[in-house]
Write a structure and sequence with these properties.
alpha/beta; Rossmann fold; 2 domains; two-stranded antiparallel ribbon; about 40% helix; elongated; binds S-adenosylmethionine
């Protein structure tokens, strides 16, 4: 398939004319090439639609009537080139276009950071209700990557000061780009830190984290698209729980009275339950898809740690 596409490089099939034609062609070509989705879309048609509209600088909620609009020769070339690049490089769409939406906000992304997709976004939209029982004046986004979770929290809780902690200097650069992009430098501060190491004495009503949690051996088995993401953002020891354990042990010293820890562990619930069988966490349910996020209050975490 790849050789067929390469052979036709630079020359879109003459049968293709309209926006709809290019979306349809892209979806079929993506499916034939066996692309892997999961970075903002979960199927070939949505991914093709997203890329075609982006290349044409058209809005995502384009009225259907414009799907029948014909493309100019120049537009055909640029749409064609983008669809081919997606197939030939296996780079996720968000890296190709340098941007993704999270919590209704645009975030700059590239290969220095994980592509935002955490279901925690839905919890932010609901103000972490019913789990959060105190007004958060200080919030920590631990393992911040692009900064998407912390910046979205800052917009949801305008009175809160938000710290973004991240180990990777390269990811921190992107994080700072997003702070500048959202003009929230007064409210949001990014810092280099190995988990809580640079946060001695700091306490928060809310700690939110999407740490690396994929078992080391499983990272290589993820599709080629995932290999473009930083390994540091995905892998965390033989069962994926190395950072989660450190977070559980160190979080109480950084939670205020009544404070809440929210942490994503994605598909690693089996590993989590095996490593922490009796921990009294709750698992929120998500209307917009996703799972594997636990919440636990400071008091319950301290009680559990006394016996562990
Ligand atoms: C799964 S990504 C999450 C990024 C972002 N919060 C999101 O939801 O898109 C995990 C992030 O944790 C960072 N990280 C890995 N080990 C870390 C550590 N020991 N301390 C702080 N950050 C770490 C990685 O560089 C990566 O940016």
């Amino acid at each position: 398939m790849l050789s067929t596409i390469s052979a036709a490089a630079g020359s879109p099939p003459p049968e293709l004319h309209t926006v709809r034609d290019y979306v349809r062609w892209g979806a079929s070509a993506f499916a034939r090439a066996g692309l892997v989705f999961g970075h903002g879309t979960d199927n070939a048609l949505d991914e093709a639609f997203h890329l075609v509209l982006w290349a044409l600088k058209l809005p995502a909620d384009l009225p259907a009537i414009y799907l029948e609009a014909a493309l100019t020769a120049e537009e055909k070339s640029s749409v064609w080139a983008l669809l081919r690049e997606r197939i030939e490089t296996r780079r996720p769409a968000a890296y190709l276009i340098g941007e993704i939406q999270f919590c209704g906000l645009p975030f700059t992304v590239d290969e220095r950071v994980l592509i935002p997709r955490s279901p925690i976004g839905e919890m932010i939209g609901q103000g972490f209700q019913p789990w959060l029982t105190v007004e958060p004046l200080r919030i920590l986004d631990l393992c911040a990557g692009s900064g998407c979770i912390g910046i979205a929290c800052a917009q949801a809780f305008l009175e809160a000061r938000v710290d973004l902690a991240e180990l990777s200097p390269a990811a921190l650069e992107v994080c700072r780009l997003n702070i500048a992009r959202h003009h929230c430098g007064e409210q949001v501060h990014a810092l280099g830190s190995d988990l809580f190491e640079a946060l001695q004495g700091q306490r928060y009503e809310l700690i939110v984290s999407n740490p690396p949690y994929v078992p080391e051996a499983e990272v290589d088995a993820l599709g080629p698209e995932f290999q473009h993401e930083p390994r540091l953002a995905l892998a965390a020891g033989s069962d994926g729980m190395d950072l989660v354990e450190r977070i559980l042990r160190e979080a109480p010293a950084h939670l205020s009275e009544g404070g809440l820890l929210v942490c994503e562990i994605g598909g690693s619930q089996e590993e989590f339950n095996a490593r922490f069988p009796d921990i009294p966490v709750s698992w929120p349910e998500f209307e917009r898809g996703g799972d594997g996020v636990f919440v636990i209050g400071k008091a319950d975490l301290e009680d559990w740690l006394q016996g562990n």
